[in-house]
C-alpha cells in the first residue's frame, strides 16, 4: 500500500469535511440571526399596534456579569472633619447632622450637590445623583456599580437634606464595598424586549409613552449576612394615557419583572 497517497487522500477528505462543516455552521448562524431579528421586529409591531411608543432607547448592552458587594460598617474616620451636632452610626447606616449648616458654593443644583458629595462625604464619588425633591428639600443619590446606578437599595444610597436657605443640614448614608464581578458574562435583553415583557405581563396599557430606559443593577439574592448579589436591570419610565407616571424594573438577563421595595422618600419617580 502506498502510504503517501493514502495520507494525501485522508488530508483532502478531512479538508473537504472541514469546509462543509464550516459552511453548515455559517448557514445555521445566519438562520439564528434572522430569527432574533424577526422576533425583535415582531415585538416592535405588537407594541406599535397597542399605541405603546418610545424613542431614543439605548442599544442593548451586550453582556454584563452579576456583581457582589459587602455592606460597609462605618467607623469614626468616615465622618467629615467638621463640627457635628449628631453622629449616629447604626451598623450599616451613617446619619450625620452638622452643628452649623454647610453653605454650598451656589444655589441648590445638580452641580453644587454633586460637588458637596464628592468633597465632603465618604466615598462620595461612588454616588450618582438620582433626583432632587425641592419641596421636601432633599436629594437622593444611588451608589453606582461599574458606572451604573444600583436602584433603590437601602444599603447603597445617600440622602442629603437642606434648609430654607439652601444650606446642608444633615445626610444619611449607606454603601457597599468590596465590589466583585462574577466571572461569567451574561447576555442582556434589549430595552425593546424589556418593554414588550412589561406589555405581555399587562403592566403597560394601550397608548403608553415610554419616556426612557436606563440600565443599572438591583439587589438579587443575599449571599451571606452582609453580602448581596446584584443583577443587571432595566429601569423603564412610562407615562400613561391619563398623564400619570410609573417606573418599572425588568431583569436584564431573564426578562422577568422585578418589584423593588422603595423607601418612603423614594416614592416619587424621576
UniProtKB/TrEMBL annotation:
Question: One GO CC term of this entry?
Answer: membrane
Q: Which organism is it from?
A: Planococcus glaciei
One Pfam short name? YycI
Specify the protein name.
Regulatory protein YycH-like domain-containing protein
Q: Where is the Regulatory protein YycH-like domain?
A: 40-253
Amino acid at each position: 500500500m502506498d502510504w503517501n497517497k493514502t495520507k494525501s487522500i485522508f488530508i483532502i477528505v478531512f479538508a473537504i469535511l472541514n469546509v462543509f462543516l464550516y459552511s453548515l455552521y455559517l448557514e445555521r448562524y445566519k438562520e439564528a440571526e434572522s430569527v432574533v431579528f424577526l422576533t425583535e421586529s415582531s415585538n416592535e409591531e405588537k407594541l406599535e399596534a397597542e399605541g405603546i411608543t418610545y424613542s431614543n432607547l439605548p442599544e442593548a448592552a451586550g453582556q454584563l456579569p452579576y456583581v457582589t458587594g459587602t455592606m460597609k460598617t462605618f467607623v469614626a474616620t468616615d465622618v467629615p472633619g467638621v463640627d457635628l451636632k449628631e453622629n449616629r452610626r447604626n451598623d450599616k447606616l451613617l446619619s450625620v447632622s452638622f452643628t452649623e449648616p454647610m453653605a454650598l458654593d451656589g444655589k441648590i443644583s445638580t452641580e453644587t450637590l454633586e460637588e458637596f458629595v464628592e468633597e465632603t462625604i465618604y466615598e462620595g464619588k461612588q454616588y450618582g445623583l438620582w433626583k432632587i425633591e425641592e419641596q421636601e428639600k432633599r436629594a437622593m443619590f444611588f451608589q453606582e456599580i461599574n458606572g451604573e446606578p444600583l436602584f433603590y437599595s437601602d444599603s447603597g444610597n445617600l440622602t442629603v437634606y437642606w434648609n430654607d436657605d439652601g444650606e446642608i443640614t444633615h445626610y444619611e448614608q449607606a454603601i457597599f464595598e468590596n465590589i466583585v464581578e462574577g466571572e461569567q458574562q451574561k447576555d442582556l435583553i434589549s430595552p425593546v424586549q424589556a418593554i414588550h415583557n412589561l406589555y405581555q405581563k399587562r403592566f403597560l396599557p394601550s397608548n403608553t409613552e415610554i419616556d426612557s430606559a436606563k440600565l443599572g443593577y438591583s439587589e438579587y439574592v443575599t449571599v451571606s449576612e452582609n453580602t448581596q448579589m446584584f443583577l443587571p436591570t432595566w429601569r423603564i419610565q412610562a407615562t400613561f394615557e391619563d398623564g400619570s407616571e410609573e417606573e418599572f424594573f425588568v431583569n436584564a438577563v431573564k426578562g422577568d419583572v422585578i418589584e423593588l421595595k422603595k423607601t418612603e422618600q423614594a416614592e416619587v419617580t424621576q
